[in-house]
Write a structure and sequence with these properties.
Helix content: 55-70%
Distance between the termini: 15 Å
Largest sheet: 2 strands, antiparallel
Radius of gyration: 17 Å
Oligomer: single chain
Number of strands: 2
Order of helices and strands: HHEEHHHHH
Strand order of the largest sheet: 1-2
Low-confidence stretches: 19-26
Length: 123
């Protein structure tokens, strides 16, 4: 049984090698700004929105080095991308938290796919 994620990635790589823009259609546009439903205050600063910059190599390293639960690792990466204290994510309203976790999911999905052997995807 074929893995749908692996198949989609294989197809995207093949299309990219042909010069197609298909990969551009599936990549999130950065930066991403989320207007908070319920503002939070942490360290004397009131947050009404969070803006997440485009991930880079240091974020992948941070994800690898972060300790704790999967959620704590996601908070560490989100804090890095939004350049805010991790505590901000502990204080978020559940609706805002879910929006942020979707961004984390996109990051971690790409991160996990990147750890696959890319040569095996083409075979």
């Amino acid at each position: 049984m074929a893995c749908p994620v692996k198949e989609a990635l294989k197809e995207a790589i093949e299309e990219a090698s042909k010069g197609s823009s298909k990969t551009d259609e599936t990549v999130r546009e950065w930066p991403v700004t989320i207007a908070l439903t319920a503002p939070v205050e942490v360290g004397g600063h009131k947050y009404t929105k969070l803006t997440f910059r485009s991930p880079c190599g240091r974020d992948w390293v941070r994800a690898e080095q972060a300790t704790g639960s999967k959620l704590e690792k996601m908070h560490a990466v989100l804090a890095s991308l939004a350049e805010v204290p991790e505590e901000v994510f502990l204080e978020l309203d559940h609706r805002d938290h879910l929006k942020c976790l979707e961004i984390a999911r996109d990051f971690f999905s790409a991160y996990e796919l990147a750890l696959l052997d890319p040569v095996s995807l083409l075979s």
